Amino acid sequence: MKEKFKFLAVLLAAALVLMACPLEDDGDGNGGSNGINWDDESGGTLTVINNTSKDIVLFEGQTPSNSTILGGVKALDTRELNISDDVDNFEIGGYMILRGITKDEYEANKTNLSQAKIEYSAMATYGQGKKFRTEISPNWTGDFGYRVNNTGRIGMELRKDSPDGEKIGYLPRLAANYLLYANSQSQMVVFPLFVYYDRRNGQVTTLQAASVFEGVAIDPRSIVNSSAIQTYYFPSQDQWDRIKDSLTSPVAYITVTNNVANQGARFTIAASRNLVAQNGYGDADGVASGETLTFELKSTASGTPQNLVCTLYQGAIQVPVRVDGESTEPVIKNGYDYTVTLRGSGQEASGYTAVITESATVRDLSNEIDSL
């Protein structure tokens, strides 16, 4: 009997030890062994805002795999990721393709992620000291879908309602039968824009060919009936060689440097419309003191006057953007690079200047495009 009680005591002690030892955590707070990190990372330069009700697992590259997991972003949460160890040229800079699937979808397909439903796609730039912010929208996740093909030789963004509308998704060059999602089957008009990243200077150039890239009416269909899902080509099949020479930029590129000490600024049109930078910053949070951001501004090839204003102190000070020595609105032309330097101090607008300078030539990517 004593031996029996001793045996039970040993079992009880072993159970208590096991209860005291935590399970290996996968970062989601539930224990497990997935190895997905859901916490902010020190030195993070990629900020992902998840506006959906789903936990999203992020991957780098066209096709998700367990070796390319960047981490996870909880539902309705914002997460900073340090991607410096996920690329081999972080100090030089470049771009990556981001893909996102729900945590449930990952769990169901982690042995064969090529079968997983990819509900988020985007292009993100990176580099030492460079930030990028992107949002996962509930509008482009759901149970309705359509297939798209990028027949061009440059990566392509799809945008809703207009060439400068909300970004729906990103397709790399020559992507075929890529399934995009929507939260309803309501028809929408989609505009495709080519996006070219120049590794030599870290510039992102947006291109379109107006004769081909008119808005395309797209009808999402229930993904339950895969045979009903429609397929769309951008541009139409076998048209790349015909349209590549007509590609032009639908925007001007304005690089703003805020040299005002200890005060953020917003880059606006008429002090009423805050502009968003190429890297996703510059709207509500503005251009920080000492920061440089590049904005895309829609204009025309011949140029139009633009009422550009830098605002400070929550709009209490408004500084008109002007060519040095001039008092009229600057004429902004598509395809050109501009620099704006904001300087000054004090509590009056007269104490500040925002000087704009135009580059000598339009951006010319013809050599690069011909080689693609």
Q: How would you describe the shape? A: globular
Gyration radius from CA atoms, angstroms: 25 Å
- The end-to-end span amounts to 84 Å
The topology string of helices and strands comes to: HEEEEEHEEEEEEEEEEEHEEEEEEEEEEH
Strand content: 35-45%
SS content category = mainly beta
Number of strands: 26
Main beta sheet: 8 strands, mixed
Structure description:
- This protein is mainly β.
- It contains 4 helices and 26 strands.
- The strands form 6 sheets. Strands 19-18-22-23-26-25-17-20 form an 8-stranded mixed β-sheet, with no helix packed on it.
Detail the topology: elements first, then pairings.
Blueprint: H1 2-20, E1 46-50, E2 56-60, E3 69-73, E4 78-81, E5 94-102, H2 103-109, E6 120-126, E7 132-136, E8 144-150, E9 156-160, E10 167-171, E11 178-182, E12 188-198, E13 203-207, E14 216-218, E15 221-222, E16 231-234, H3 240-243, E17 251-258, E18 265-269, E19 273-274, E20 292-298, E21 304-305, E22 308-312, E23 317-323, E24 331-332, E25 336-344, E26 352-362, H4 366-370
Parallel strand pairs: 1-7, 8-16, 17-25, 23-26
Antiparallel strand pairs: 1-4, 2-3, 2-5, 5-6, 8-11, 8-15, 9-10, 9-12, 12-13, 12-14, 17-20, 18-19, 18-22, 21-24, 22-23, 25-26
